[in-house]
Amino acid sequence: MLRSLVGSEMCIRDRLNVIHLHLSDSDSFPIWIKSNPNITKYGAFDERKIYYPSDIAELIRYATTRAIRVIPDLPGPSKTRSWAAAPEFNDVLICRNERTCDYPFCGHINPYNEKALGISDILLSEIQDLFPDEVVHLGGGEIDGNCWQRSPEVNGKNPNQAVSMFQMRRRRQLRSGKRAMIKSDSSYKGVAGDIIHGIRTRDTIPVGRYFVASSPFPFELYCGFGNAEGSEVLWCDPLKTWKDIYNYDLRQYLNNPMFLGVEATLYGDMNSEATTHVKLWPRLYALAELGWTTSRSARNLRNVVERMVHFVEQLEALGFEKTTITSTYCCLLYTSDAADDLLCVDLGGRRIIKKK
Question: Residue 70 pLDDT more than 90?
Fold first, then answer.
């Protein structure tokens, strides 16, 4: 699945040059850890869903030859239940089996537990061995306050101080030349030169930090398809179309020299090989258009639709699944403009006409 994602030849064509890999979450840890295989043996869904060092190396090689960077993301202290699935690590979590959060399985690494800190050290060291990119994402966000308050191990302690302590330790472990990427809702904001990820309109950007715009803008590509229980809506519903993405106003960031770009997210918990490209394309193309068209006045919806129709044709030629841009009626070849244009008004006031 990872290779399929990076294998899309469209990435480099449309200047989408970074893959941000969320390596683990509460429910699964699929990366093989050679110094302690039980972390993966018990943390992965099953033995068929493990990524070994050779798989990661092939992924990075394949991406690098296409000028695409691969940034690893090792979250913490939240989203870490899967780290402690092995029997010998049962005591490193808080609120392990309590349904206090929005995920199927809760659990935070206890930042005051020395064994937990040791696991974090091991994982971060091996992730740096596997991924040569200068940026390592350290997570740090989505701390569950309910979990914190109901756990006697940490209740009464300041969660923000604990997260900062945990993240400062991890930041010190990054090797020379490495930079941290950190969630914008983390209490720890890194050091000068680091990157704040997921910056929102209300966020204050610390001096000297670069930033990437992401959630909760219309860039959450997994939203609108239901959650793991099939009966509830996600916080970011409804589904965002390519037009929602293209029409987003980035002007508040464009003159800031620390602004690195925008990112769309597609999590794997409600996704599969069969649905990856359908959910990605052509919405990622709209994101590329948004990110590389710095002047809002330069945008023209009709022109971008024509480019996107051509883009979809390229996807089909390469054998990729995709979502259509508009109805076939709006894309038919006509010899004149005589036909009624009203049904295609959302494409920019008229249908797409190609003269023979």
Answer: yes
